Protein backbone atom coordinates (compact mmCIF):
# COMPACT_ATOMS: atom_id res chain seq x y z
CA UNK A 1 0.00 0.00 0.00
CA UNK A 2 1.30 3.45 -0.89
CA UNK A 3 2.32 5.57 2.07
CA UNK A 4 1.08 9.14 1.94
CA UNK A 5 3.06 11.71 3.86
CA UNK A 6 1.23 14.65 5.39
CA UNK A 7 1.85 17.98 3.72
CA UNK A 8 4.82 19.84 5.17
CA UNK A 9 4.87 23.65 5.26
CA UNK A 10 7.27 25.10 2.67
CA UNK A 11 10.49 26.27 4.28
CA UNK A 12 10.87 30.03 4.47
CA UNK A 13 7.53 30.46 2.67
CA UNK A 14 4.98 31.17 5.39
CA UNK A 15 1.89 32.83 3.87
CA UNK A 16 2.17 36.62 3.93
CA UNK A 17 -0.99 37.27 5.95
CA UNK A 18 -1.65 40.10 8.39
CA UNK A 19 0.38 39.70 11.54
CA UNK A 20 -2.61 40.55 13.75
CA UNK A 21 -4.48 37.46 12.57
CA UNK A 22 -4.71 34.39 14.80
CA UNK A 23 -3.88 30.92 13.42
CA UNK A 24 -4.73 27.42 14.57
CA UNK A 25 -4.29 24.03 12.92
CA UNK A 26 -6.97 21.69 11.60
CA UNK A 27 -6.89 19.10 8.83
CA UNK A 28 -7.82 18.93 5.16
CA UNK A 29 -10.77 16.78 6.19
CA UNK A 30 -12.47 19.94 7.49
CA UNK A 31 -11.84 21.71 4.21
CA UNK A 32 -13.36 18.87 2.18
CA UNK A 33 -16.31 18.72 4.56
CA UNK A 34 -17.39 22.17 3.38
CA UNK A 35 -17.60 21.03 -0.23
CA UNK A 36 -17.65 17.21 -0.33
CA UNK A 37 -19.01 15.95 3.03
CA UNK A 38 -19.36 12.39 1.69
CA UNK A 39 -15.96 12.27 0.04
CA UNK A 40 -14.14 8.94 0.18
CA UNK A 41 -10.94 10.94 0.76
CA UNK A 42 -11.96 11.99 4.26
CA UNK A 43 -9.80 9.41 6.14
CA UNK A 44 -6.71 10.30 4.12
CA UNK A 45 -7.46 14.03 4.31
CA UNK A 46 -7.41 13.81 8.10
CA UNK A 47 -3.64 13.16 7.88
CA UNK A 48 -2.92 16.47 6.20
CA UNK A 49 -2.68 19.51 8.51
CA UNK A 50 -4.07 22.83 7.34
CA UNK A 51 -3.84 26.30 8.81
CA UNK A 52 -7.07 27.98 9.94
CA UNK A 53 -6.56 31.73 10.10
CA UNK A 54 -8.87 34.05 11.98
CA UNK A 55 -9.07 37.62 10.73
CA UNK A 56 -10.89 40.34 12.65
CA UNK A 57 -13.20 42.85 10.96
CA UNK A 58 -11.17 45.53 9.23
CA UNK A 59 -7.94 43.51 9.20
CA UNK A 60 -6.11 42.53 6.02
CA UNK A 61 -5.72 38.92 4.99
CA UNK A 62 -3.07 39.86 2.44
CA UNK A 63 -1.79 43.15 1.08
CA UNK A 64 -1.64 44.19 -2.55
CA UNK A 65 1.70 43.19 -4.04
CA UNK A 66 2.53 40.61 -1.33
CA UNK A 67 4.14 37.33 -2.51
CA UNK A 68 1.41 35.03 -3.85
CA UNK A 69 2.25 31.99 -1.75
CA UNK A 70 -1.19 30.61 -0.78
CA UNK A 71 -4.85 30.40 -1.65
CA UNK A 72 -7.61 30.81 0.91
CA UNK A 73 -10.96 29.06 1.32
CA UNK A 74 -13.43 31.20 3.27
CA UNK A 75 -14.84 29.15 6.13
CA UNK A 76 -16.84 31.95 7.76
CA UNK A 77 -17.29 35.65 7.13
CA UNK A 78 -17.04 38.14 4.28
CA UNK A 79 -14.06 39.70 2.52
CA UNK A 80 -13.59 42.51 0.03
CA UNK A 81 -10.95 42.44 -2.69
CA UNK A 82 -9.64 45.85 -3.71
CA UNK A 83 -6.80 47.92 -5.13
CA UNK A 84 -5.54 51.34 -4.12
CA UNK A 85 -4.99 53.73 -7.04
CA UNK A 86 -2.11 56.20 -7.18
CA UNK A 87 -4.46 58.98 -6.09
CA UNK A 88 -5.54 56.96 -3.04
CA UNK A 89 -8.92 55.84 -4.41
CA UNK A 90 -10.01 52.39 -3.22
CA UNK A 91 -11.35 50.36 -6.15
CA UNK A 92 -13.40 47.39 -4.94
CA UNK A 93 -13.09 44.45 -7.33
CA UNK A 94 -15.10 41.73 -5.59
CA UNK A 95 -16.62 40.39 -2.40
CA UNK A 96 -16.16 36.84 -1.14
CA UNK A 97 -18.34 34.86 1.25
CA UNK A 98 -18.33 31.40 2.81
CA UNK A 99 -17.20 28.47 0.60
CA UNK A 100 -15.50 30.79 -1.88
CA UNK A 101 -11.80 31.04 -2.71
CA UNK A 102 -9.47 34.01 -2.39
CA UNK A 103 -6.08 34.46 -3.98
CA UNK A 104 -6.59 32.05 -6.86
CA UNK A 105 -4.02 34.17 -8.73
CA UNK A 106 -1.37 32.47 -6.57
CA UNK A 107 -1.42 29.55 -9.00
CA UNK A 108 0.02 31.66 -11.82
CA UNK A 109 1.28 34.97 -10.40
CA UNK A 110 4.29 35.93 -8.33
CA UNK A 111 2.34 38.46 -6.25
CA UNK A 112 -1.25 39.19 -5.30
CA UNK A 113 -2.68 41.85 -7.65
CA UNK A 114 -5.14 43.07 -5.01
CA UNK A 115 -5.57 43.34 -1.26
CA UNK A 116 -8.07 41.26 0.73
CA UNK A 117 -9.71 42.60 3.88
CA UNK A 118 -12.26 41.09 6.27
CA UNK A 119 -15.58 42.96 6.48
CA UNK A 120 -16.52 41.04 9.64
CA UNK A 121 -14.77 38.58 11.94
CA UNK A 122 -13.86 35.80 9.54
CA UNK A 123 -11.87 32.58 9.18
CA UNK A 124 -10.08 31.08 6.19
CA UNK A 125 -8.26 27.84 5.47
CA UNK A 126 -4.77 28.60 4.17
CA UNK A 127 -3.44 26.27 1.45
CA UNK A 128 0.24 27.04 0.67
CA UNK A 129 0.99 27.19 -3.03
CA UNK A 130 3.82 24.66 -2.71
CA UNK A 131 1.45 22.04 -1.26
CA UNK A 132 -1.29 22.23 -3.88
CA UNK A 133 0.25 19.67 -6.28
CA UNK A 134 0.80 17.13 -3.50
CA UNK A 135 -2.70 17.61 -2.09
CA UNK A 136 -4.30 17.33 -5.53
CA UNK A 137 -2.46 14.06 -6.17
CA UNK A 138 -3.24 12.53 -2.78
CA UNK A 139 -6.83 13.83 -2.56
CA UNK A 140 -8.72 13.66 -5.88
CA UNK A 141 -11.72 15.33 -4.24
CA UNK A 142 -9.53 18.33 -3.37
CA UNK A 143 -8.44 18.58 -7.00
CA UNK A 144 -12.12 18.68 -7.96
CA UNK A 145 -12.84 21.35 -5.33
CA UNK A 146 -9.97 23.40 -6.71
CA UNK A 147 -11.33 23.15 -10.24
CA UNK A 148 -14.77 24.24 -9.08
CA UNK A 149 -13.24 27.14 -7.16
CA UNK A 150 -11.48 28.33 -10.30
CA UNK A 151 -14.69 28.04 -12.29
CA UNK A 152 -16.57 29.99 -9.64
CA UNK A 153 -13.96 32.75 -9.74
CA UNK A 154 -14.47 33.07 -13.50
CA UNK A 155 -18.24 33.05 -13.03
CA UNK A 156 -18.07 35.93 -10.56
CA UNK A 157 -15.93 37.90 -13.01
CA UNK A 158 -18.56 37.40 -15.72
CA UNK A 159 -21.30 38.42 -13.29
CA UNK A 160 -19.49 41.66 -12.57
CA UNK A 161 -19.35 42.36 -16.30
CA UNK A 162 -23.12 41.75 -16.43
CA UNK A 163 -23.64 44.26 -13.61
CA UNK A 164 -21.57 46.96 -15.28
CA UNK A 165 -23.29 46.38 -18.64
CA UNK A 166 -26.40 48.12 -17.29
CA UNK A 167 -26.68 51.84 -18.01
CA UNK A 168 -28.94 52.76 -15.09
CA UNK A 169 -27.44 52.76 -11.60
CA UNK A 170 -30.55 51.28 -10.00
CA UNK A 171 -30.43 48.37 -12.46
CA UNK A 172 -26.79 47.79 -11.52
CA UNK A 173 -27.77 47.69 -7.85
CA UNK A 174 -30.65 45.31 -8.60
CA UNK A 175 -28.29 42.93 -10.40
CA UNK A 176 -25.80 43.14 -7.55
CA UNK A 177 -28.48 42.24 -4.99
CA UNK A 178 -29.73 39.33 -7.09
CA UNK A 179 -26.24 37.91 -7.45
CA UNK A 180 -25.55 38.42 -3.75
CA UNK A 181 -28.82 36.63 -3.00
CA UNK A 182 -27.64 33.60 -5.00
CA UNK A 183 -24.36 33.57 -3.12
CA UNK A 184 -26.16 33.75 0.21
CA UNK A 185 -28.22 30.71 -0.78
CA UNK A 186 -25.08 28.84 -1.90
CA UNK A 187 -23.51 29.26 1.54
CA UNK A 188 -26.63 28.16 3.41
CA UNK A 189 -28.15 31.55 4.26
CA UNK A 190 -31.47 33.11 3.37
CA UNK A 191 -31.49 34.39 -0.22
CA UNK A 192 -34.20 36.96 0.54
CA UNK A 193 -33.30 38.36 3.92
CA UNK A 194 -29.69 39.14 4.78
CA UNK A 195 -27.36 41.69 6.32
CA UNK A 196 -25.02 43.61 4.04
CA UNK A 197 -21.48 43.40 5.42
CA UNK A 198 -20.24 46.06 3.01
CA UNK A 199 -21.03 49.77 3.22
CA UNK A 200 -22.52 51.97 0.53
CA UNK A 201 -19.10 53.38 -0.46
CA UNK A 202 -17.79 49.85 -1.07
CA UNK A 203 -20.87 48.92 -3.09
CA UNK A 204 -20.55 52.17 -5.05
CA UNK A 205 -16.91 51.44 -5.84
CA UNK A 206 -17.81 47.99 -7.17
CA UNK A 207 -20.71 49.34 -9.25
CA UNK A 208 -18.78 52.32 -10.61
CA UNK A 209 -21.13 54.99 -9.23
CA UNK A 210 -21.08 57.66 -6.52
CA UNK A 211 -21.94 56.50 -3.01
CA UNK A 212 -24.82 59.02 -2.86
CA UNK A 213 -26.23 57.30 -5.95
CA UNK A 214 -26.27 53.95 -4.13
CA UNK A 215 -28.43 55.44 -1.36
CA UNK A 216 -30.85 56.91 -3.91
CA UNK A 217 -31.03 53.59 -5.76
CA UNK A 218 -31.84 51.68 -2.58
CA UNK A 219 -34.65 54.18 -1.97
CA UNK A 220 -35.89 53.81 -5.55
CA UNK A 221 -35.96 50.00 -5.43
CA UNK A 222 -37.73 50.13 -2.07
CA UNK A 223 -40.28 52.66 -3.38
CA UNK A 224 -41.04 50.32 -6.27
CA UNK A 225 -41.84 47.60 -3.76
CA UNK A 226 -39.02 45.25 -4.70
CA UNK A 227 -37.32 45.27 -1.33
CA UNK A 228 -37.33 46.62 2.20
CA UNK A 229 -34.20 48.31 3.50
CA UNK A 230 -33.46 49.15 7.11
CA UNK A 231 -29.88 50.40 7.31
CA UNK A 232 -27.86 47.29 6.26
CA UNK A 233 -30.72 44.83 6.58
CA UNK A 234 -32.20 43.81 3.24
CA UNK A 235 -35.48 41.97 2.73
CA UNK A 236 -36.31 41.18 -0.91
CA UNK A 237 -40.12 41.38 -1.08
CA UNK A 238 -40.60 40.76 -4.80
CA UNK A 239 -37.80 38.61 -6.23
CA UNK A 240 -39.53 38.08 -9.59
CA UNK A 241 -40.15 41.79 -9.95
CA UNK A 242 -36.56 42.61 -9.03
CA UNK A 243 -35.28 40.12 -11.61
CA UNK A 244 -37.55 41.55 -14.31
CA UNK A 245 -36.36 45.05 -13.43
CA UNK A 246 -32.71 43.94 -13.57
CA UNK A 247 -33.12 42.87 -17.21
CA UNK A 248 -33.63 46.52 -18.27
CA UNK A 249 -30.10 46.83 -19.61
CA UNK A 250 -30.45 50.22 -21.29
CA UNK A 251 -33.29 51.78 -19.33
CA UNK A 252 -32.43 55.21 -17.94
CA UNK A 253 -33.15 55.89 -14.28
CA UNK A 254 -35.76 58.53 -15.12
CA UNK A 255 -37.83 55.87 -16.91
CA UNK A 256 -38.40 53.91 -13.68
CA UNK A 257 -41.95 52.66 -13.17
CA UNK A 258 -44.04 54.07 -10.35
CA UNK A 259 -44.38 52.48 -6.92
CA UNK A 260 -45.74 48.91 -7.07
CA UNK A 261 -46.85 48.92 -3.43
CA UNK A 262 -48.11 52.44 -2.56
CA UNK A 263 -48.72 51.39 1.01
CA UNK A 264 -44.98 51.19 1.59
CA UNK A 265 -44.31 54.74 0.40
CA UNK A 266 -45.02 58.20 1.76
CA UNK A 267 -47.55 60.10 -0.40
CA UNK A 268 -45.21 63.00 -1.30
CA UNK A 269 -41.51 63.52 -1.94
CA UNK A 270 -38.68 61.01 -2.17
CA UNK A 271 -39.16 58.15 0.24
CA UNK A 272 -36.26 57.79 2.68
CA UNK A 273 -35.03 54.22 2.96
CA UNK A 274 -35.63 54.11 6.70
CA UNK A 275 -39.22 55.44 6.39
CA UNK A 276 -40.56 52.32 4.70
CA UNK A 277 -42.86 50.24 6.85
CA UNK A 278 -42.34 46.49 6.70
CA UNK A 279 -45.11 44.02 7.50
CA UNK A 280 -42.77 41.75 9.47
CA UNK A 281 -41.48 44.53 11.73
CA UNK A 282 -37.81 44.03 10.80
CA UNK A 283 -35.51 45.54 13.40
CA UNK A 284 -32.84 48.16 12.53
CA UNK A 285 -29.30 47.15 11.64
CA UNK A 286 -26.03 49.05 11.13
CA UNK A 287 -25.75 52.19 8.99
CA UNK A 288 -25.36 51.64 5.28
Question: Secondary-structure map with pairings?
Answer:
Blueprint: E1 22-27, H1 28-35, H2 42-45, E2 49-55, E3 60-62, E4 70-76, E5 79-84, E6 90-96, E7 101-102, E8 115-118, E9 122-128, H3 132-138, H4 140-164, H5 169-186, E10 193-195, H6 200-207, H7 211-223, E11 227-230, E12 233-236, H8 239-246
Helix pairs in contact: 3-4, 4-5, 5-7, 5-8, 6-7
Oligomerization:
single chain
The CA-CA distance between the termini, in Å, is 58 Å
Q: Could you tell me the radius of gyration in angstroms? A: 21 Å
Q: Please count the beta strands (DSSP E, at least 2 residues each).
A: 12
Biggest sheet character:
5 strands, antiparallel
Helix content estimate? 25-40%
* Strand composition percent: 15-25%
Total number of helical segments? 8
Unreliable residue runs:
1-9, 253-288
What general outline do the C-alpha atoms trace? Answer: globular
Strand order in space, largest sheet: 1-2-9-4-7
Order of helices and strands: EHHEEEEEEEEHHHEHHEEH
Give average pLDDT, whole number: 82
Query: Could you say which structural class the secondary elements and strand pairing correspond to?
Result: alpha+beta
Fold and architecture overview:
This protein is of the alpha+beta class. Helix content is 32%, strand content 21%. The chain has helices at residues 28-35, 42-45, 132-138, 140-164, 169-186, 200-207, 211-223, 239-246, and strands at residues 22-27, 49-55, 60-62, 70-76, 79-84, 90-96, 101-102, 115-118, 122-128, 193-195, 227-230, 233-236. The protein has a five-stranded antiparallel beta sheet. The radius of gyration is 21 Å and the shape is globular.
Amino acid sequence: METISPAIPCPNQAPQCAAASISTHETMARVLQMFEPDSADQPVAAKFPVLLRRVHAGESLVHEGAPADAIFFVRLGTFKVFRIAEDGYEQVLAFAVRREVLGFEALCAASYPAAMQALEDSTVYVIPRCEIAQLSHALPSFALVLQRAGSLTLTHSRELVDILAAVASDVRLARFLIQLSKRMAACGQSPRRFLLRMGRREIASLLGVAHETVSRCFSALAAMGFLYVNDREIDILDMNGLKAFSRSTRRQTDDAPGPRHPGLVRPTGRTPVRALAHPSGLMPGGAI
